[in-house]
Amino acid sequence: MPEISSELTQKLSAAVDKMPAFPKSVQRILELTRDINCSHKELVMIIEKDPVMTMKLLRILNSAYYSFPMRITTVNQSVVYLGLNTIKNMALSFATVGVLPQQNAAGFDFQGYLIHSLTTASLARTLCQKYGTDETNPSDCYIAGLLHDFGKVVFAQFLAADFKEALALSTDQSISLNTAEQQTIGADHTVVGGMLVEKWQFPTFLADNIRNHHGDISPDNTMQSCLFVADQISKQLVPDSSGTMLVEELSSALVERFEGELPDIIAALGDLSSLEIEAQAFAQVGREVRV
Amino acid sequence: MRLKFWGVRGSIPSPGEATMRYGGNTTCIEIRTDASELIILDGGTGIFPLSQTLLGELPVTAHIFNTHSHWDHVQGLPFFIPNFIPGNSVRLYGAFDPISGEGPERIMNVQMQYSYFPVREAELKCHFEYHALQPNEVVSIGTATTVTPILLNHPVINLGYRVDSNGTSIFFTGDHEPHFNIYEPGDDGYDEYQGLIEYQRQSIIGAIRGVDVIVADSAYTREEYPSRKGWGHGTFDSSIQLAKDAAARILYCTHHEPARSDDELERVFAEAVSRHAAEAGEIEILLAREGDGVVIEPQGKQQK
Question: Of the residues A33, A207, A273, B82, which has the maximum number of CB atoms within 10 A of its CB?
Fold first, then answer.
């Protein structure tokens, strides 16, 4: 597996602190935190829809400063441990960093990325609820889905030129974005995403799943297989305008586990339109956000 | 081990006729081990009169454990007289704050600024040290005493402290509101959140089980609580429940409301105690009062 240098990991890890979050969540957090009686549920809902805010929050919760007996994987866990007001103020501090610009040097579609992450997260949770046969927590599948492509945002933000080249290479030569990233950056987004969460002491399953979401999927691993299938459904339902996200085939073992090919699984999940609409609505660029 | 209350009031100092009996200073508890080591829980305004009593035993080594950084738990720290006398040693322990990214040093640095206080933190004359604590990190003091921070629930990070010394133990909550579910029954997240709360509640009980004395935030009455939910404080009822769950022998209710007169305090306290008389069993339930103390001895013998 290609590795990135520890120097680059260090640099990217430090850079994430300064990373802006998504427009809608920044806007809502700024609004909510002005209200002393703001809705606690909505606060949690906003944070857990934003991969950047979720990543920053879990990074602090899992840091050596707190050394919790268990690794923290959900926003709700964060609220129970540190208290609502602290989480509210942390969200405010993330919001005041600013918003990810729609126009960026890498030419990366942040809005499309967010829609894909949100639909993958919701689908992974739904698949786990429907097809899970063990103790795997559907909320953990949600987080895995939300964060699985985080490496791409990091590339777009901090290695813009190389990532832009990878996006172009992937489209021009019809190769996977991973292969293109390996050529222009030296490591793909799965490696970088996995390295970061590993460095930040997130639960091992999260690092493993982020790293392996384009790899060999074990049908016995519920989270891994739910994430993989969710990723494919998400790409199928909401095609990527740049054409860099190719729907991958399900192995026969996965077809057996999920009782059918991708169209069969989609059909079995029933009406997914509300899920798509919700993701689209959240990813829409909101009104002008003043920080 | 010996415990003495120097401040039992919450939120803001409340001197005056109506609070004369229980006292108007904000939170400060002095603990002395059998070897006379000095442990201070919180530096509200009560730490000032405490520090005056230390002048006869200089030089002192003070281990000050801060539960959290709100004013009523830190405001007396710049007035802790040993700070200004060479030869003394002061160690301030407290939580790491995720918002500022700083530990307990911020409590002193922020208060001791030119605009607010005539002496800067850099000008302290004693040996002053800071220690940012992780939850459950055990601190040893001398050979027979340990202090264990336990993460509780308040609008800012709050560590309760369990002090174990020579077979006796005290737990002080600092400010703590029992966790509550942010979802309504029937909501998607309700059951999951309830599970998380129960896990955390059990962790807290597990960490303090069997202590001799609990000093607990009992700011509100049962009737006052609904309009103050989420403010980070407990009730007389929640404190009695905590003492019962932890099988403590003595419960001191503290963090008295600043606007509550002594008469009113005694009245609402008596109501709550009588309400729980049956299930509280043999737990001795008391109101914390400035100047009161207790000597805790192993095997149930106490002297007040």
Answer: B82
Q: Do A79 and B137 touch (CB under 8 A)?
A: no
Which residue do the tokens 């003070």 mark? B62
Mean pLDDT of chain B: 96
Q: Which two tokens stand for residue B74?
A: 């830190």
* Residue B299: partners with Cβ closer than 8 Å, 6 or more residues away: none
CA atoms within 13 A on the CB side of B294: 22
Tokens 């997240």 sit at which residue? B189
Interface contact A79-B96, CB threshold 8 A: no
For A78, the closest chain B residue by CA position comes to B196
Under an 8 A CB cutoff, do A82 and B98 touch? yes
Nearest to A83 among B96, B153, B197 (CB): B153
Helix or strand run (H / E) with residue A234 = helix A222-237
Q: What is the CATH number of the domain that holds A206?
A: 1.10.3210.10
Same-domain pairing of A70 and A207: no
Identify whether residues A158 and A40 lie together within a single domain. Answer: no
Contact between B161 and B174 (Cβ < 8 Å): yes
How many angstroms away from the CA of A291 is the closest CA of chain B? 17
* pLDDT one-digit tens code per residue, B55-86: 999 999 999 999 999 999 999 999 999 999 99
Give all domains of chain B, ordered by start, each with its CATH number.
2-303 (3.60.15.10)
Whether the predicted pLDDT of A291 surpasses 60: no
Mutate to test the interface with B, among A17, A29, A36, A66 (most CBs of B within 10 A): A66
Asked if A23 and A128 sit in the same domain, the reply is no
The answer to whether residues A76 and B189 touch, using CB atoms and an 8 Å cutoff, is yes
Rg (CA), chain A: 18
Q: What is the mean pLDDT of residues B161-171?
A: 98
Please say if the pLDDT value at position A138 is more than 70. yes
The domain total for chain A is: 2
Same domain as A67, residue A17: yes
Nearest chain A alpha carbon to B232: A83
When pLDDT is cut at 50, 70 and 90, the band that residue A290 belongs to is very low
Q: Are the CB atoms for A141 and A227 separated by under 8 Å?
A: yes
Is the bond preceding residue B59 a cis peptide, omega within 30 degrees? yes
Range of the domain at A224: 110-283
Record: contact B157-A139, CB cut-off 8 A? no
Residue contact A65–B136, C-beta within 8 A: no
